[in-house]
Amino acid sequence: MTRAGQPMPPMLNKVPDVTVIFWIIKVLSTTVGETAADYIAVHVGLGTSVTMLIMVCGLIGALLLQLRYRRYVPWIYWLSVVLVSIVGTQITDLLSDKLDVSLTTSTLLFTVMLSATFAVWYATERTLSIHTIVTTRRELFYWAAILFTFALGTAAGDLATEALGLGFRLGVVAFGALIAVVVVAYLAGANPVLTFWIGYILTRPLGASLGDLLSQSRNYGGAGLGTSTTSIAFLGMIVALVIWVTFEGQPAKASDPV
Predict the structure, then answer these.
(1) Number of domains in the chain
(2) Paired residues of 249 in beta bridges
(3) Residue 257 phi/psi, 5° resolution?
(4) Which residues have C-beta within 8 Å of that of residue 182, sequence separation ≥ 6?
(5) Which is more confidently placed, 139 or 169?
(6) Would residue 255 count as lying in a domain?
(7) Contact in structure between 123 and 68 (CB atoms under 8 Å)
(8) What is the rounded CA–CA span in Å between residue 236 and residue 252?
(9) Domain span at residue 214?
(10) What is residue 71's DSSP assignment?
(11) Which of 11, 42, 46, 83 has the greatest number of C-beta atoms within 10 Å?
(12) How far apart are CA 178 and CA 170, in angstroms?
């Protein structure tokens, strides 16, 4: 903590390096967003609205903690991502289940909102790179974009797997194939910022399809593990990986708040 009268230390990039571990934790987080939201809303019996309220409060708390630090802290960052995943899922479910908004409409709506966020972000900062999240304003743009990618990924994923009849297994294959195309495009020299955000959006329906495939009953084409087992297992893997990256030299000293 800085003393009175001393200048604030410069903010370091608040987003982790985009590595294989980053994408693994991202997919695990999206799966938890799908299964945990279903478990709390349906099996615990809180319903979509109450679950949404609880998770929004949790997300606000996590983001306030995230904004308090001037460097990347793995456990705070990934806690925020998991909660954003759950809230993004709940937003789409609330529109579909409570307000009868079609998946096509919600997909278009979140596409427009995400595009508008990127447009304002770029007009203000002249970059969409996640390697330069070094100001609070850029970080706020970043988290707004992350929220809309999860909401859009949920709507588009549900539209593909339910409305278009892909099912869980084909959903995993289809979205996995699309991500592979993005990877090939990146390796071939495509714009790294564009390919990152496309990949980020596509990992949401991939994780959701994977979560449904594992948790849903065998009668519906799933593995029958249940939402509680799937959520606990994937949360455990997230925790293990976050601990691993923390002790692999990531700059994550929790005694360094603003």
Answers:
(1) 1
(2) none
(3) -70, 175
(4) 195, 198, 199, 202
(5) 139
(6) no
(7) no
(8) 20
(9) 20-243
(10) S
(11) 83
(12) 12
